[in-house]
Description:
This protein is mostly helical. It has helices spanning 7-37, 41-54, 58-86, 98-102, 105-123, 127-138, 155-168; strands at 145-146, 152-153. The protein has a two-stranded antiparallel sheet. Strand 1 (145-146) and strand 2 (152-153) form a beta hairpin. The radius of gyration is 24 Å and the shape is elongated.
Amino acid sequence: MSPRRPRYLDKLxxxxxxxxSASVALxxxxxxxxxxxxxxxxxxxxxxxxxAYNRGDFTGAVGVAERCTSTFRKQADxxxxxxxxxxxxxLPVTPAEKSSVLARGPLNDVATCYxxxxxxxxxxxxxxxxxxxxEAAAQYSHAFxxxxxxxxxxxxxxxxxxxxxxxxx
Length: 169
């Protein structure tokens, strides 16, 4: 017969494992929160607008998108104007241009948020508001939105396509 472990030792091991699990969970929570905080406000707003849209909260998506566009529109307009003046070609985006495109955060996020606003307004059956959102997005030909697969898409081009669909209805 093997000797039994004292009961207090089992409780001590349980306490240690519980504390270890709680510490790991807290560490993961703090890490995720810290990473989210490091995103610029414009990027946070664009991500929040997409999240609201994707969960079907179209009114919420419009509200967040409008917050982004009203806060960062001037900066985006300045960036678009400068790129237009420099004669920089908006398309195509090659891998070598990736960091240059990503550095245009406010421009990219404002154009994306206008596109989201247009899409959400369509879902809310607000045709005039949708048209305004798409027309605004279409003005930012140097803006690109980043997909999680590493590719880019043009909110301006997508908005032009949506405007054509909207006008055919």
